[in-house]
Fold this sequence. Notes:
Elements: H1 3-13, H2 18-28, H3 39-46, H4 50-60, H5 65-73, H6 100-118, H7 121-133, E1 137-140, H8 146-158, E2 163-166, H9 169-177, E3 184-189, H10 195-207, E4 210-215, H11 221-224, E5 228-231, H12 242-263, H13 265-280
Parallel strand pairs: 1-2, 1-3, 3-4, 4-5
Amino acid sequence: MNEKLELILREKYADLRKSEKRAADYLLQYEGDGRTLTLEQFAAGANVSQPTVLRFLRALGYKGFKDFRYVLAQKEPEEKENGYFLYGSTVMEGDTISELPAKLIGTSIGQLKDTLKNLSAAELEKAVTAITKARKIAVYYVENSACTASDLVTKLAYLGINCCSYSDYYLQNVSAASMEKGDLAIGISYSGCSISTVDAMRIAKKAGAKTIAITNFENTLLEKYADIVLVTSNQHFLYGDAIFSRVSQLAVVDMIYTGVLLSDYDRYTKILDRSSKIISKQAYPSQDDD
């Protein structure tokens, strides 16, 4: 399958109907010749009806099966040398340092593709709206989610949004208990099962705050206390899992940041420009080399 079609599939996946997801799953693993695939074969292979296949293709933006099959038949050069097919691989005994760039970058690229498949654009839009309307925002996290939380707080601060983060269990609980209606709690957890993060979200939700979960997996305990869920990837990796979960979570932070910016472009670009001018004073002026 060519790269363009795969990206479209992963981008639309989270918002498809259950039967349409079966069609997408079949297509993502399809290795046959796109020029010979028929509508009947597609429907049978995906275990769905032919009308479902056509509805699925329309959801992807294609006018009909012929239009889709033309794109499916297009081939792109394989990039195995760059590690693109190493997604999900782990570092093993016997690997050399020279192999690491391809392995790690290939895995990161793969997880970003998986994030595109799992992340719901509708949920992302809800998250952006909740952030822009919140009176105050508290971000809860532990351990390896620190860089994601820090990046989120920093980016929102640049846009003039009242936001802070907590990793200490006691401070998380104190903060969560003080939340009110109109406030927003964001829990970041790779597994969705981190005790302190889950507890803070539960307390914040009970206190009346709206809640957002950023996690790698669906149907987790964290999701139970979340009004909005941003799921990244469902793949497990070597310890620490966060060396790859960071990639997808930081991408989600960038999506949130850009979404907020676009929600009121004139307002937020002015705030961003003001913030950038303040920060620029903390840098030495550039000097020509002697």
